[in-house]
Design a protein that fits this description.
globular, about 35% helix, Nucleotidyltransferase, domain 5, single chain
Length: about 475
């Protein structure tokens, strides 16, 4: 991997690299210890986090680099390379997958100008399962805190799980405080008993470990493994859609992921082992053309609804095994694609009906993923699902957004947003050390709670001409 011009990150999970104010890096060592303490605090306040999302898909590996600061997420770089090491979302060839990850990381590093050490990796596949659970915990101190929420969620995940499976996510649907239910965020509420209802997302341990092993063989540390449709929802769904009910349909190369939101929380998650590669295989068999050419025909000329294609439109189909290319009606290509797409959407509708949540999806469905780029996909989905359907593209980020503007980048961008939220939650749960000196911006002075040795250093510096206070006024 290429060397980076940025300093190495610390030990905080998910922190890949940091950008500091370099103008005073050499001068800090010449300051007295008390002044170095305040300068270090100012540097931490100005620090930005670099978060990397690694989308390991059946047809491609995509690495997205984002810079997280107080203003939001800025996309710095993207690496996107083909991948042949997965089958239906599960790693089937370690070496091929490692090669694709290395190439994607190298491309993202070069574009972003940072060294990537830690990533948030996506996982999918038909091994994913969704289970309901609940938990109860006593409220310490009479008021709900973040730690109380963590304890009740930890209790909800304490259920028997098969030895070959592990829990990926604990997704709260609602909280209860004493006898009051339907609470989204209980922090700050008064009570003695906190309860929750959650959905547990489980995955095959071997599949998750293979993803982690591939990343580690590339010299990367996996901060967290995230279910890909959960990551995609971060980037393409609005809070209003989650509130009134929405179905997220992520059509990938090997799988189609379904995620249902009701009342602001995830109510159901499942994976269908069919996707864009099935359509490509049908085209290759039906038109007797190589798989690579079938993929090109699907992307450039494919249409999910045959009636949207004119009768006079023609395409050139390359031959296989030395046979010359031939011309055929574009309608023939559409007639091959339509039955497979109809089958996928029919299975999705059946899954939604089986959950009993069809009537609660007032916002309809959102299509995302590389498999929805064909013409007529949203129109066909509306017919089969019987609800409004829109195309979902990543939102809520800045920077070089033109590189991640398509639905095929929803998971990669969503992994960055998921990582940014995880870092924010970790900081919220981390207590401030009492010996650290705080800056009181209102009074433009230091709040007097330093350690004894720091007090002595400040007293000495003040006696020696007031250099410390002069520097502090100039710096702040």
């Amino acid at each position: 991997m290429s060397a980076s011009s940025l300093p190495e990150s610390g030990a905080v999970p998910g922190r890949v690299a940091q950008r500091h104010d370099l103008r005073s890096a050499d001068s800090v060592t010449g300051l007295p210890p008390s002044m170095r303490t305040v300068h270090a605090m100012k540097s931490r306040m100005e620090t930005t986090e670099i978060v990397v999302g690694l989308d390991i898909g059946t047809t491609k590996v995509c690495a997205v680099v984002g810079e997280v600061d107080a203003d939001g997420i800025t996309i710095l770089g993207v690496g996107n390379v083909p991948c042949r090491g997965l089958r239906k979302g599960v790693v089937s060839n370690i070496d091929w997958t490692v090669r694709s990850i290395s190439e994607a990381i190298e491309a993202a590093q070069t574009m972003a100008g940072v060294e990537i050490r830690t990533v948030y990796a996506g996982v999918a596949g038909s091994h994913i399962r969704c289970h309901g659970s609940d938990g109860v915990a006593a409220i310490s101190g009479g008021e709900v805190t973040r730690l109380d929420v963590e304890r009740v969620l930890e209790g909800a995940r304490a259920i028997p799980v098969d030895a070959d499976r592990q829990i990926l996510h604990v997704l709260p649907r609602e909280f209860t405080v004493d006898n009051q239910d339907g609470i989204r965020d209980p922090v700050g509420m008064s009570g003695v008993r906190l309860g929750t209802k959650v959905n547990l997302i489980t995955a095959a341990t071997s599949c998750v470990q293979n993803v982690v092993r591939c990343a580690e063989r590339c010299g990367l540390t996996v901060a967290d493994v995230v279910l890909e449709p959960v990551a995609s929802a971060e980037s393409v769904l609005s809070e209003d859609e989650k509130e009134i009910g929405v179905a997220l349909i992520d059509v990938g190369g090997g799988t189609t992921d379904l995620l249902l939101y009701v009342d602001g929380g995830i109510a159901h998650a499942s994976v269908i082992p069919a996707g864009g590669n099935n359509v490509t295989a049908d085209i290759a068999a039906g038109l007797r053309t190589p798989m690579g050419e079938a993929e090109r025909l699907k992307r450039n000329f494919g249409c999910a609804l045959g009636r949207m294609v004119g009768d006079d439109e023609e395409i050139e189909v390359p031959g296989v095994g030395g046979h010359p290319p031939r011309r055929t009606a574009r309608r023939v290509l559409s007639d091959i694609i339509e039955p497979r797409v109809e089958e996928i959407f029919a299975v999705i509708r059946k899954r939604i009906e089986d959950t009993g949540l069809l009537e609660q999806l007032s916002a309809g469905a959102v299509l995302t993923g590389g498999g929805v780029l064909m013409e007529g996909m949203t129109e066909f989905a509306e017919e089969i699902l019987g609800m409004p359907v829109r195309l979902g593209v990543p939102v809520g980020v800045r920077g070089i957004t033109q590189l991640v503007a398509g639905p095929q980048y929803a998971t990669g961008v969503g992994l960055v947003q998921y990582g940014a939220n995880a870092l924010a939650q970790a900081r919220a749960l981390t207590p401030v050390p009492p010996e650290v000196t705080r800056i009181d911006a209102r009074r433009d002075r230091i709040v007097k709670e330093p350690r004894r040795e720091l007090q002595e250093e400040m007293r000495i510096e003040t006696k020696s001409g007031g250099r410390f206070w002069s520097w502090l006024r100039a710096a702040f």
